[in-house]
Amino acid sequence: MDSRITLTQIRVRGFHLDGYGHVNHARYLEFLEEGRWAYFDDHAEFASGLAQGAAFVVVNLNIDYRRAAVVNDDLDIETYLTRLGGRSGVVGHRVTHRASGERVVAASLTFVLLDQKSGQVIPLAGEWHERLAPLVVEDPDAA
């Protein structure tokens, strides 16, 4: 797998389920967040900047639910950076059912970096662009 993509594995447990016996849509937000934290762990380029006072702030999230996941399903969550703009970036997520290879969820998350002291958005230029641009991959789910 491309080193710019982080793979996180989760087993669906009973507490992830809703009354219909499948993973509740809101739980996918937690799965995706787990993937992002693992991504930061794997990419010092991001983690070091966050440690210096930048906050990763979600400003938009689009989720395409494609298949139900149920108890004891093993899911693979791929997390990757797909775009850097002047003020925002986009993180992609793919959740795949490991046994069947079927896509469970595809998501696109837009973020900004916020200076925690000033409360101002940090431009993704200069040092931040140099730091993050090598991590950008083409979105595997892009048409």
Number of strands: 6
- As residue ranges, the low-confidence spans are none
The CATH architecture name reads Roll
Count helical runs: 3
Rg from alpha-carbon coordinates: 16 Å
CATH topology: Thiol Ester Dehydrase, Chain A
Number of domains: 1
Q: Termini separation (Å)?
A: 21 Å
Overall mean pLDDT score? 94
Give structural notes:
- By secondary structure, this protein is an alpha+beta fold.
- It has three helices and six strands; from the N terminus they run E-H-H-E-E-E-E-E-H.
- Strand 3 (74-84) and strand 4 (89-97) form a beta hairpin.
- The protein is elongated, with a radius of gyration of 16 Å.
- The mean pLDDT is 94.
Summarize the structure.
The protein has three helices and six strands. By secondary structure, it is an alpha+beta fold.
Topology:
Blueprint: E1 6-11, H1 25-42, H2 44-51, E2 54-65, E3 74-84, E4 89-97, E5 103-115, E6 121-122, H3 126-132
Antiparallel strand pairs: 1-3, 2-5, 3-4, 4-5, 5-6
List keywords for this structure.
single chain, about 140 residues, alpha+beta, Thiol Ester Dehydrase, Chain A, 6-stranded antiparallel β-sheet, 3 helices, 6 strands, about 35% strand, elongated
